[in-house]
Amino acid sequence: MLSEKKRKLEQEEAERNMQILLDFLQMLRKQKVDELNEVQHDLQYIKEDLNSVERHRIDLYRARDRYSMKLRMLADDPIGKKPWSSSTDRNFGGLFSTSRNAPGGLPTGNLTYKKVDSKAQISSPGPQRKDTSISELNSQHMSQSGLAVVRKKRVNAQFNDLQECYLQKRRQLANKSRVKEEKDADVVQREGYSEGLADFQSVLSTFTRYSRLRVIAELRHGDLFHSANIVSSIEFDRDDELFATAGVSRRIKVFDFSSVVNEPADAHCPVVEMSTRSKLSCLSWNKYTKNHIASSDYDGIVTVWDVTTRQSVMEYEEHEKRAWSVDFSRTEPSMLVSGSDDCKVKVWCTKQEASVLNIDMKANICCVKYNPGSSVHIAVGSADHHIHYYDLRNTSQPVHIFSGHRKAVSYVKFLSNNELASASTDSTLRLWDVKDNLPVRTLRGHTNEKNFVGLSVNNEFLSCGSETNEVFVYHKAISKPVTWHRFGSPDIDEADEDAGSYFISAVCWKSDSPTMLAANSQGTIKVLVLAA
């Protein structure tokens, strides 16, 4: 009986072991089949897209041949002097600019050929003019080929991120049954292109278009011999004609942007200057009333200024500690929100003296921002490492708490009504979907462990500062930087032990443009533009 019982136990043990092995193998097979199906689907997307791109490329080559033939015919025909000029400008203007022009991009091909055409018009008359112009066009074509090689290198350097971006867009399209909308003229022209491929090409062309930040102007914010030069906030006004700066110097300075860019450096003087009682932490222009700007300061005071009269319009003194952030609503211009070290978020109306709403949180508030498409939704960045997204119609609890940062959230900015970006002293930027309440991507490359280094966004790009005294630019679809620019210390010996302690303290994009402003803790302000 004992031996029988032993055999029975051994049999059961063997069966259990076999069942565990069988379950594992079945699970592994299912996982690998799923992976294989995903790879097969991915390969099918790639095959379809390769066919679409090949067809489109052949069409472009045929168009180029037709234009080249037409150009040669017109070059040989002295009567066709005038049409040659206009047709070159019209046809060759768009020939090499095959990618979609994303917001913030420039149609470089078109600009280049217009420039060539203008050169042709002022050259000496007759056939010599045509020969010179054709050689110039050929040299431009050669430079385009060189540019293509450089852009290909950028693709290889970021291949993994670009691959992930492509597959994500193609899978999303496959998983959702979308109604085809002719919302973009380029998509309509590219017959056979899927929406996912068109979206990815936009990312690819925008990402590879730029490789550096070029300085086009520079000015000083404060006294060279005064240590309190940190620029804590820099903001363009509603029309991008003026920009304001503020910081620990206790002054709001307003500059004319075109004057800063076009006039000599020694002529860079503010058009308006307003003194304040305390150090300033943040600025926000009113999106409707052009001459109104709000400030928050180290005494917890939120002030609305009229830059025309240089006088304060309203002063709110309810915060009990330092106010770090203030923001005007884009859709309801009389409303603004502020956040403070007193752990309170306060909503104000310029039509009344007291706050209209108060949210008491458990941690210091570092940043607040209105959703650009709503006057009732705000994002709040806190020292508790989280972003709290509130509907102001019910503030008893947030709509959602976005978690992921490992340190205090220093900035929150909206790229669109549904896209939110955040910066933290954990040296990362993060993107969030506030519609579906999901994390999207983490961006790494800069250094930020203790200071407010600035964050600014436009439709495609994010920029932020670094404690290495560098400005970094990211594309929202790629987790690594597109480019960066280091601030020099022209007035200080590089061997100076303090030279390495400067950091970027504020950044701001010009709306829908590759141009941005950046300032550092030394008080240097630069106008930078993304360049190839």
Automatic annotation (TrEMBL):
Q: Name one GO biological process term.
A: red, far-red light phototransduction
Stretches for region Disordered: 118-138
Specify the species. Answer: Solanum stoloniferum
A Pfam family this chain is assigned to: WD40
- Gene3D superfamilies registered for this protein in UniProt: YVTN repeat-like/Quinoprotein amine dehydrogenase
Segments annotated as WD repeats: 273-315, 316-348, 402-442
Cell compartments where the protein resides: Nucleus
Alphabetical GO CC annotations of the entry are:
nucleus
Record keyword Nucleus present: yes
GO molecular function terms listed in the Swiss-Prot or TrEMBL record: identical protein binding; transferase activity
Q: Which chain positions lie within coiled-coil regions?
A: none
Signal sequence range: none
Please give the name of this protein.
Answer: E3 ubiquitin-protein ligase COP1
